[in-house]
Amino acid sequence: MKTLNSLTLIFFLQAMLFIFMITIPSSHSITFHPNNNNDLIENICSTAPYYDICIRILTSGSPTADIWGLSVLMVNDMEAKAKEALAKINELQRSGTGSKTSLDSCLKEYNAILEDDIPKAREALQKRDAKISEGALNDVVNEATKCETDFPGYLTEQNTVMHDVAADTIHIFKLLHS
């Protein structure tokens, strides 16, 4: 009798688990299996503001990364782009190109990205709480735009790429807490 009750309980629990699994909408799931990572990347990037940038960055990493791991790739790319922009700013300063005030403004914006915004995004990933970085990621978009406004033409490529990568990163972080 005990065996029959145990088997009935096990069967009941399995049935409940099956029902629970099929009733969860797929849009609420952020855990994906490695064998469909290409589908995950395509699903993320198909709704991202800058599809080509998203695909380029996300396909550069681990083929088994989940959405959190893919988010790390985006933040790493933002950091690399900010460092490239700072190198370009330093090059322009050394050559005496452009307005010192405008270059100083861009230097300030990109330092803020590296010293404030990227660490907040990393903290969000570490804590698995994407909401805490929303303001910082929006700041990245605004800081790149401000640099372009203050110093048009000289850093357009760097500002555009930073803006676009940040916009895609915002998109992915929103998926993490939706």
Which keywords apply here?
mainly alpha; disordered N terminus
Give a concise summary.
This is Putative pectinesterase inhibitor domain-containing protein. This protein has 178 residues and is mainly α.
Description:
The chain is mostly helical and 178 residues long. The protein has one domain: Invertase/pectin methylesterase inhibitor family protein (Butyryl-CoA Dehydrogenase, subunit A, domain 3, Up-down Bundle), CATH 1.20.140. The protein has 7 helices and no strands. The radius of gyration is 22 Å and the shape is elongated. InterPro entries: Invertase/methylesterase_inhib, PCW_Enzyme_Inhibitor, Pectinesterase_inhib_dom. GO terms for molecular function: enzyme inhibitor activity. Belongs to the PMEI family. This is Putative pectinesterase inhibitor domain-containing protein. Keywords: Disulfide bond, Signal.
Element layout with pairings:
Blueprint (H helix, E strand, L loop, with lengths): L1 H22 L13 H10 L4 H8 L8 H29 L4 H28 L6 H17 L5 H21 L2
Helix pairs in contact: 2-3, 4-5, 4-7, 5-6, 6-7
Helix content range: over 70%
Largest sheet: none
Number of strands: 0
Q: Which architecture name does CATH use?
A: Up-down Bundle
Note the total helix count: 7
Shape: elongated
Strand content: under 5%
CATH superfamily: Invertase/pectin methylesterase inhibitor family protein
Overall structural class, as computed from helix and strand content, comes to: mainly alpha
> Rg from C-alpha positions?
22 Å
Distance between the termini: 47 Å
The averaged pLDDT comes out at 84
Number of domains: 1
User: What is the CATH level 1 assignment?
Assistant: Mainly Alpha
**Could you spell the SSE succession in H and E letters?**
HHHHHHH
Low-confidence stretches: 3-35
Task: Say what the CATH topology is.
Answer: Butyryl-CoA Dehydrogenase, subunit A, domain 3
